[in-house]
Amino acid sequence: MPIVDPRTGAPLNTPEGSTQTSAASADPANYIVDIDMSNFQQVVLEGSVQTPVLLDCWAPWCEPCKNLMPVLEKLAHEYAGAFILAKLNIEEHQEIAAQLGIRSVPDVKLIMQGQLYDQFQGALPEKQIREWLAQYIEAPQDAPASPEEQAEAALAAGDAATAQAIYRQLVQENPEHYDYQVDLASATLAGGNAEDARSVLDNLPPEHRDAPKARGVRARIDFGDEAPSAEELASLEGRDDSEARYKRALRQVADGHYEAGLDALLALMKADRAYGDDAARLTLLRVFDALGADHPLTVAYRRKLFALLY
Questions:
Q1: Residue 3 confidence (pLDDT) above 90
Q2: Residue-number span of the structural domain to which 263 is assigned
Q3: Number of folded domains in the chain?
Q4: Taking the alpha carbons of 64, 70, 73, 79 in that order, is the dihedral positive or negative?
Q5: Which candidate in 35, 44, 62, 189 is catalytic?
């Protein structure tokens, strides 16, 4: 049975001469299988009719492959036979790799019912792989949280130190996955160390340093720098002029009270659009950048801003 890409209908040629035996069993020893010419037919083609197969195409010289493989092996054990992890060393088995059209690694293909259902290239984060896999295979009910989810839970609980430790480990294991470094900067900022957070961002490659996620963390750092101190805030007590209202809004945003800060900026914009050369509107846009385009507050307050403008 050929592997067919359902999106194009084109068959993927498979190696000839491989054995025609039954699919791999769900015995724990067979969750992870090294693929060669002798078992490709059995494990990948026939085996995928009964059990989905995750075909991990890798090479010994590929550093991202070395980062990805332990994650896939961990998931294979967690899923306990719900899928088979088939590992193909493209250096040792170039004929198979050529017939599968492998051009770069890591290349991970999900084979089900003898067909290519989906695939991804590169060493994706564990959380993203879990989400991708869950589209096709039901995750175990007792599956542990991914490191990313553990870090997010720690931040939500106010434990920035634990989140930093998790992200440092992820950065060490995945040095070319720069989003982890941005996450580390964010957790470092949450822990109260703005300068270290800024240093992490400054050391990113330019294309990642200027990406929306990193810009958002930098915006939060800048809000902390710009917001009035406790002493200055106390000196504004009783004042309701535009400057006082703006500075109080900045402090709210810097302290993470985003909704209150956004409301205050919208109110100031409505009352005194000219203040600070349109400072309220421009600061609203910076808050949206800090939160991210998909954040519920960004979505809601963009609508409010649009309604106010038009």
A1: no
A2: 227-309
A3: 3
A4: negative
A5: 62
